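Service request form, structural biology core

Requester: graduate student, group of Dr. S.
Request type: structure prediction, single chain
Budget code: on file
Notes: please return the result as structure tokens.

Sequence provided:
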Amino acid sequence: MSKVMKWLASLIILVSILQAETIDAKYKIEYGIFGKMGESEARLVKKDGHYKIKMIAYATGLAKVLSGGRVEVYESEGTIMPDGTLRPDVFRKDISRKGKKRIKIYTFNRKDKKIEYKEERFRDGKLESESSGILPYFAENDIISLYFNVKTILKNCQKPFDKMLKAVGAQKNSGNVRVSTVVGDDIKKVKDLLGEASCYLKVTVYQKLFGSKGGELYLGLRPDFVVKKAVLKDVIMFGDIRGNLTQFSKHN
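Core staff response, request fulfilled:
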């Protein structure tokens, strides 16, 4: 459940940030016959040319019991470039369950084209272990900043686009994540899945998210590029996992 919550939750903040100082969003995650299994909350704040995104994802009901009360926190901080794209400096993830906590911080060393990381593991509030290293790849984005920047990368969602991108937090050894627009005759099939939308995307993350065959996410976007609905296809035994935007606001 945890990986699904992370990926679907991050999709709700795929928006244009040019007109808002603060964006808040909430997402409901439903899983097959079990109905609602989790929620996520996200906030973007931009000020003085810098941004900070914080996302919290947590299980509810039966999923909360099965996951040991798992809570995940993801943060991305960095600079807003003149064209409005986000350039991350630090990406952080904090995962807690059953008295255990794991914190991993990634730092972007753009001068040397390296991503450095430090990981700490805690049990009952006490540090158990720590490690550090360098990722085997370099990426300009983390997985959260990438979703914000997709609008700039795509330019026109109505035209064919199919490209392998890289982001910290995507495929473990390569950072690969594939983004494709759904256009032409393929729209009808996706519309049956996601309903009416201004733009449809397919995102392949190359991880078996929650037992899915290949980590394929289908997204339906509003005109302002907010993802209104997301579906993770072909989860073993249960079918599809659905994510629905339930609350969204932006203000100064």
